[in-house]
Amino acid sequence: MKRSLYFYRLVFGVGLLLLWQVASGWLVSPVYISSPVAVAGRLSELIASGELFRHARITAFEAIAGFLLGSGVAIVVGLVLGRARRLAEVLDPFIMGFYSLPKIALAPLFVMWFGIDMSMKIIFTAAVVFLVVFLNTYSGVRSVSPEQQTVFRLMGATERQVVRMVIIPAALTWVFVGLRLSAPYALVGAIVGEIIAGNRGLGYLVARTTAQFDTAGAFAAIVAIVTLGVLLNMGIKALERSLMPWRQMEDAREVAI
Amino acid sequence: MHMDSDISPPLPALVSFAGIQKTFAAPEGDGTLVAVEGVDLTLEEGHILTILGPSGCGKSTLLNMLAGIYKPTRGTVTYRGAQVSGLNLRTGYMTQNDHLLPWRRILANVRAPYEIAGMPRRSATAKAMELIDLVGLTGFENAYPTQVSGGMRKRASLARLLAYNPETLLLDEPFVALDAQLRLAMQAELRSLARRLGKTVLFVTHDVDEAAALGDKCAVFTARPGRIRQVVDIDLPADRDLMTLRQNPDYGRIAAKLWDLVTRESREGRISHET
Ligand SMILES: Nc1ncnc2c1ncn2[C@@H]1O[C@H](COP(=O)(O)OP(=O)(O)O)[C@@H](O)[C@H]1O
Ligand SMILES: [Mg+2]
């Protein structure tokens, strides 16, 4: 079952690459879509020269720093607002307004405020990540069963003990949903920042190579971006496993009706 | 309501409900829904009261008022001579839902009340292990709640309740989800533990046999608005053996009486459909 799944995935992936290779130069000019062989060649050049890693390190740093900053603030604010019902009601329309705004529209302003160096990309990424994590943390806190909290209050638990023993661990599941959902946005933030303003990073590399009609180079940079995204996701999953061991037990249980 | 026996209790009541009415906003429209009405009820320390009535008659509401979670609309709830206002920390709750924390292993769940009390980790663990042994969960202390059966979760929940060691146990249909055998075992365990530890118990159920087997007395409620139809003294031996109780003719008589009381309403033609 599992083996055949991997097999079909491999077939699909190889098929896609073959199609791309064949289409390039026959259906579409390689100027636009390059070809897998050319991309692989360019990728190994970029790796050999060390250029790719130089850019990737910067993007990774911006994405991770922004992600940590944005989600850290979001978790604290989510916890506080999740407890302060009244305040949350007052802020609700403002939060929803900010939520519906495509954050990219803010990028030029961020350039004006914070310049074009790394701190701008980090803050921009943090802003993009913040809302997703905040909203999930907030709903997580709100979804903790009031009965469960009462049971603990009857045991004599103080408000702080209820928060520490019940609310935070219960909200953690939701926090991680937010983290997983927002991880791709962290990359979006960093890369958009680099495309708009910058001379370093994978976003800059995509912009520069495209402008020079080095399509293979652009694709090579994109391959690096995808790799970075996958690594970021794996990191979050690993963190989730180590912070919430009970979840694995739930997953490992045999499904029965 | 009339008392089944006229012997007045020798002890002052630990718990008393006097002239209790509780209304809620009706789910539809802006009227009110009367959950319980005209409830007068007392319970002596160390006794087990079972509260028997159809779903929705306000049994849980009554327990919530004793725990101080709800305030009565009318009347007063008194606990050890003082009116209940705010959470009544001398009571402990156990419901159909075990309310274990899924992220804590059984041991850590049972230990939680000791942690709240600020007991050092080592002695808290030792005491929790004793309780785990008491409820027959030894060997499962390192399992997560999702890894054990419903009956074991119930035991863990009971152990945690005992760790917290409230004077009065509020048990709201705690054994509903269990199969008949497990349920009987849990009932027997509960009764012997409560007696051994001198606990006062209010036990809500809609199961006539459970009400008769567990209680020292049983308050039978009508359908909503819940009123007490009758308080029945259950004159079975205090150290009754629940496993063989069904063969006891006194038990049969009492159960028949409770059945008669709970079915009276429908026999009188007032069939209530409640979920
Ligand atoms: N917090 C509440 N808000 C509104 N209605 C409630 C609330 N709690 C209970 N009720 C209503 O009061 C009635 C009695 O409820 P409950 O005490 O839970 O009954 P029981 O436990 O006997 O099944 C029900 O009709 C229920 O819908
Ligand atoms: Mg109920």
Could you explain how this protein is built, in words?
With 257 residues, chain A is mostly helical. Chain A has one domain (49-256): MetI-like (MetI-like fold, Orthogonal Bundle), CATH 1.10.3720.10. Helices cover 84% and strands 0% of the residues of chain A. Chain A has helices at residues 2-23, 30-33, 36-49, 51-83, 85-100, 107-114, 118-142, 146-154, 159-196, 202-211, 215-243, 245-252. Chain B is of the alpha/beta class and 275 residues long. Chain B folds into two domains: 44-71 and 85-90 and 168-275, Rossmann fold; 100-165, no CATH class. Chain B is built from seven helices and ten strands. In chain B, the strands form two sheets. A six-stranded mixed β-sheet of chain B has the order 6-7-8-3-9-10, with helices on both faces. A four-stranded antiparallel β-sheet of chain B has the order 2-1-4-5, covered by helices on one side. The radius of gyration of chain B is 19 Å and the shape is globular. The two termini of chain B are 26 Å apart. Chain A binds chain B through residues 145, 147-148, 150-157, 161, 165-166, 169-170, 172, 244, 246, 249-250, 253, and chain B through 67, 69, 87-89, 91-93, 95, 97, 99, 101-104, 112-113, 115-117, 144, 146-147, 164, 166. The structure holds adenosine-5'-diphosphate and magnesium ion.
Question: Gist?
Answer:
The complex is a heterodimer of chains A (257) and B (275). Chain A is mainly α and 257 residues long.
What would the keywords be for this entry?
heterodimer, A: 257 residues, mainly alpha, MetI-like fold, 84% helix, globular, B: 275 residues, alpha/beta, Rossmann fold, 2 domains, 6-stranded mixed beta sheet, 4-stranded antiparallel beta sheet, binds adenosine-5'-diphosphate, binds magnesium ion, ATP-binding cassette domain-containing protein (chain B), AAA+_ATPase (chain B)
